[in-house]
Design a protein that fits this description.
flat; 1 helix; three-stranded antiparallel β-sheet; alpha+beta
């Protein structure tokens, strides 16, 4: 199962890019910086998984 989230930076402002995550072969969640598009980031996460 893969997913996408939008996080805020340390100063409280929203970031420009979405953060994607996927489960590796051990079941651990791995995060990566995606693109400004939620749809593209989710596609990247599904491909990595």
């Amino acid at each position: 199962m893969a997913g996408v989230r939008k996080r805020k930076s340390r100063n409280g402002k929203p970031r420009r890019h979405f953060e994607g995550w996927y489960r590796d072969w051990r079941g651990d969640r791995k995060f990566f910086t995606g693109t400004p598009s939620k749809k593209e980031t989710l596609a990247m996460a599904n491909k990595l998984e």
